[in-house]
Amino acid sequence: MSFEFKPKVPQKELNYQELRIYTDEELQNPSDEELKSFKVKYDIPMLEQLESGPWPSFVADLKVEALRRRKLADDRMMISRDVVEDLLGQVELSFEHGETHWKHGGIVGVQGYGGGVIGRYSDVPDKFPGVAHFHTVRLNQPASKFYKTDFLRALADLWEFRGSGIFNLHGSTGDIVLLGTFTEQLEPIFQECAHHLSQDIGGSGSNLRTPSCCVGKARCEFALYDTQEMCYDMTMHYQDELHRPMFPYKFKFKFDGCPNGCVASIARSDLSFIGTWRDNIRIDQDAVRGYVQGDIVPNAGAHRGREWGKFDIRKEVVDRCPSGCMKYEDGVLTIDDADCVRCMHCINTMPRALRPGVDTGVTILCGAKAPILEGAQMATMIVPFMKAEPPYDNIKEVIDKAQEFWMEEGKNRERIGELIQRVGLPKFLEAVGLPPAPQHVWKPRENPYIFWKAEDVPGGFARDISDYRKRHAR
Amino acid sequence: MGLSTTKFGVYNPDNPQENRITDIGPRYYWDFFPPIIQRNYGKWLYHEVLEPGVLVHVSETGEKVYTVRAGGMRIMSAAFVREICDIADRHCDGYVRFTTRNNIEFLVDSPEKVEALKKELESRKFFSGANKFPVGGTGAGITNIVHTQGYIHCHTPATDASSMVKAVMDELYNYFGSMTLPAKLRVSMACCLNMCGAVHCSDIALLGYHRKPPIIDHEWLAKMCEIPTVIASCPKAAISPGATPDGKKTVKIKDERCMFCGNCYTMCAALPLSDKEGDGVVVLAGGKLSNRISAPKFSKVVVPFLPNNFPRFPEVCETVKRIVEVYATHANKYERLGDWAERIGWEKFFELTGLPFTDHLLDDHRLAYDTYRTSTLFKYTDAAWAVSKAAGGVD
Questions:
Q1: How confident is the model at residue A153 (pLDDT cuts 50, 70, 90)?
Q2: Prior bond to A438 cis, omega within 30?
Q3: A399: distance to nearest CA of chain B, Å?
Q4: 8 A C-beta contact, residue B358 and residue B395
Q5: How far apart are the C-alpha atoms of A299 and A453, rounded to whole Å?
Q6: Which of B83, B266, B291, B325 to probe by mutation at the A interface, max A CB count within 10 Å?
Q7: According to the model, what pLDDT value does residue B106 have?
Q8: pLDDT at residue A5, as a whole number
Q9: Residue % of chain A over a pLDDT of 70
Q10: Cβ-defined contact of A152 to B198 (cutoff 8 Å)
Q11: Number of helical H runs and strand E runs in chain B
Q12: Which pTM does this prediction carry?
């Protein structure tokens, strides 16, 4: 298979040496001795407790940044020198009070966009003026979060110069999160990113949230469609929806290359695209023997840390198959693929002997969300199989129909999954133009309260009471 | 042209539309792939975890890419990002990637480079002695905890996130650097019910939670909020129109109907919920996302409340560790925590872990009936005898 990739928007070649703001001298971090004796402006005994222990310490890290800022010249940062120390001071106060000190709300953003920037203000700005404003900018991460260091270094310079120098890598939805700046720097940050880094901001609010995907074909043998290409294509196609709130509430796309679900699309996206196949699992019987004889380590070595005994193909694979479609007889493994539910267990356990089929596509599921408001929902299977090839027109048609239904019928702050709960799956399937199937449910309904429509019943609903009375005395 | 060093850079506040660029999307991913990834895109044959934190992927072209995975803080400084870049420049030709669970991955093309890279990662420590780049997080172990903002940036948290994750990962450190569990175990953390991190399908989920109904800021409510929107925001219809003694419009709340979701506060800043004693942590367990063997499933509440004891959350750490250790001892190979609990029965889960089963663990929300046992199929544990005794059924 050969691939030809072309970016859809001209991409600037990045060279940190050309982009950089700070000199090598300015980038020198303080020494460990300096850091050990460094006291931030406030007493932070509880936070300092978190400097110890083996796991990386965000407190120790923030101290490095705080001391860096103390040493920079005044004109080498556009927001308060004290932002990091004030953040630490405010968090310590929150520990003391057992309550957050960030204010609710505050609308800020960049012109023409309705999302991508989260306004944040301190409710104790007199105590901690450096974080009086502490707005977040979400940047749309490149698919699968691969980076060239030129980009990351330029971003670090930009963010230390115009913001707090503190990142989240990454936010839960996937974005690169620039954490904490003042209002007047929002537009400069946005345009610096666009002009110098060919990089746009992501989503927040009632719009399409930044789509994200698994590592996919970049470094995984299980990827059953091109998650990166599809994620990028959808991100570009729906730019308007991403930046300008037009929906009842948030809407998320996520792209998982296989049913293992490494980006959790099935639990947290309104439309979940999971790679699948419809032909047969490919079997290499020599490799099967390799596993049985102990020449190849099962489950790709994921259980190396403990002695689990000799690999037992019956116990560990055949008997664990959820649909019971496998047999191992006379040293030969057979699969009744018509009964396979594609759970991936056998493939995960013996990846060198078993591979998914070659006729691949996606299963589309709809309506997952976290608990607010109507309780957590897992995505419901909507389309069992669909080819997923550029330009994805078939899939965009399903997306457009689902969103149109939601925008017409949904209430304010109602996710599409909640709308489906409220009006029922049949209405949703009708809106998207899909026939109902047993695959849509675990089991048929157990209550008989079927909503028959007038057109379903001979003669319709309109009846004449006087006609009825001819047969039945009052 | 370099990044600007003037106050407004390329942005002209006097003419905001000048040279404005919008809607260009993210950087094109292909440009950020290391050449070995470009050459083998879509051609991977199989992979193996060579040791905790080290993966090898083998391509049909014969090439192999080695990944060294390091656990990290999600919140990190520009200085730390540059340190990641230093390592990536020295060992990986200037490429690096991050995982969905906030690990940092360095990719190289030979076992020798793996050793040099590991040595470098393990040698880097903070001035306080904490590791900067612990290697691990693969296979049948515990990888990095995904989490939300907490007191670092959020206006609705019921607890802090970064500190709890640091405290819990210090406790679970050995499980990060080893692969001794029956299957992978995913711990996730969200600091309120909004669950920005969507932790509701994790093997173990830590959830910040409020336990007191909102305080009503009567003075300001009508000025700050649309009253009909506030009323409509409550999923339990606990909010209704009200008036102050001096005739100001406000709302009333039926406390007994409040389920502490905080949606009213999200809609209206005049209804804050957070409270030092009221706020704390719920522990959920047994969820999963993958379709492997069994369907994805939600986590279940196993501890209804633990206090916010900053900064180390000893009760949370102890509970997580106890669940992990009991699971590690009892589950079968390949069995996720939730699958194990279902196989042995949740009554046995509570017996083995010693976690108290209280009335707060009985569902009384929507669809609660689905969780009630309508069968004589159950196992006897001490908890069963306690019920029988209370009913006068046994001595």
A1: very high
A2: no
A3: 19
A4: no
A5: 52
A6: B291
A7: 98
A8: 59
A9: 99
A10: no
A11: 12, 12
A12: 0.96
